[in-house]
Amino acid sequence: MMAAGGEVAVPLLGTKRRHDGCPGCRLDEANKTSTGIPYRNFFYIWIVCLASTLPIQSLFPYLYFMIRDLKIAKQEQDIGFYAGFVGATYFLARTFSSVPWGIFADKYGRKPCIVISILSVVVFNTLFGLSTSYWMAIVTRGLLGLLCGILGPIKAYATEVCRKEHQALGISLVTSSRAIALVIGPAIGGFLAQPAEKYPNLFSKESIFGRFPYFLPSFVISILAAGSCIACIWLPETLHFHDDEKVEAIDALEAQVIDSKLEGGKAKEDSDTSTKNLLRNWQLMSAVILYCIFCLHDTAYLETFSLWAVSSRKFRGLSLTSQDVGTVLAVSGVGVLVYQLAVYPFLVKYFGAIRPLRPAAVLSILLLITYPFMANLQETELKILINIASLLKNVFSATITTACNILQNTAVAQEQRGVANGISVTLMSLFKGVAPAAAGILFSWAQKHMTGLFLPGDQILFLMINMVSIIGLLLTFKPFFNMSSALRRS
């Protein structure tokens, strides 16, 4: 095609044709005509994210008692060992399935991936609550992690279902739903587990909830997941399906014309966009490693805290109930939400999002040192202090995690962030999978070695968890990580 002056008129690369029957094109057309925020679609995304995250967070308040009742542990000190593997199975399975689910979502659509993931929550979370043996719990938990591949695709979906100016809001909905799960999940697990013991007037020991004491929290979450699965009917597909090979050939030809017209590499994609070169981007990979280390610490802490809080006083535990633990974790979740909404914006305004990382890590380390000594407290003072300590710990963790996420995204160009976050999620899932198993083994070892060492077992337990955070703090300095360069980019 010739323009005035004999020059080749090059079509704009960003220009898209509308293809009849393509759901992605149909949604693009709808977004062009509607400039408002798609509240209904955003609400469905929020519910779906919440339903997929609740099975992770609801487990910890009652995991110790569930392992005890499954009678896999020969002695009380072994409960933590077996509990660790139940907590780890979900994350390890997700490590292997994250990339295949991403490929599936790119080929067959976001909506099928979301629906299958939610259905897996309905089926396998319910079966987990009905577990009559340790291995049934392991298998159902593993299948849930393997088939619930929603984490990556839902982030992509949240940005594709709306206009560009609303994409940040879509991503924030994914984050906020996971934050709400930190509140609701532990409350569901803590208050609804063992209902026949806690609420004998409502649930008899002969009922299904009496015979399966950990079924009720799973059942409630599965009901919510089933409702969100129904809501998926109204979710529009965002992926473009173009089967017209002639149109694709024209698009490819146009791209070649642009490459020849704009020499000097302006229209050529930089080689760093490949996954191979992303792995060579040290600023990115060092930020990802930092993120993974602090995720390892947070997951190990949560597993250890849940086991330690309900364990017996003779092992220097707190002898709390699953309801108490659920309350502590729920209060911490509410506190983190308030912090993120009311306090954190002012912190970022005056200090930036990255600079508080090191102070938060130092304060977290100092706080965790005090945990073993809380076993000397009783009743009201114990509950007050453990709630304050847990709240502060989660606030510090939220500050660190947010900074690590920003470090990852500022280390690459915008068009590379999808692949970069995919790498991060895969490695993070691996670290989170190792954390509960390692924490459970260490917890069991600590209970068997309360005396005879240079420190009591419980102090060694928290010292080892603290060492992970210390390593993460040390890695924020040169030569491993260039913080000053990261601050300039942000």
From TrEMBL:
CDD domains: MFS_SLC46_TetA_like
One GO CC term, this protein: membrane
Alphabetized UniProt keyword annotations: Membrane, Transmembrane, Transmembrane helix, Transport
Transmembrane parts of this sequence: 42-67, 79-96, 108-128, 134-157, 169-194, 214-236, 284-308, 328-348, 360-378, 384-407, 419-445, 460-481
Compartments it resides in: Membrane
SUPFAM superfamilies, sorted: MFS general substrate transporter
Record-linked Pfam families: MFS_1
Statement: the UniProt record of this protein carries the keyword Metal-binding: no
PROSITE patterns the record matches: MFS
Domain Major facilitator superfamily (MFS) profile: 41-484
InterPro entries linked to this entry: MFS (IPR011701), MFS_dom (IPR020846), MFS_trans_sf (IPR036259)
Membrane topology classification: Multi-pass membrane protein
Name used for this protein in its record: Major facilitator superfamily (MFS) profile domain-containing protein
Taxonomic placement: Eukaryota, Viridiplantae, Streptophyta, Embryophyta, Tracheophyta
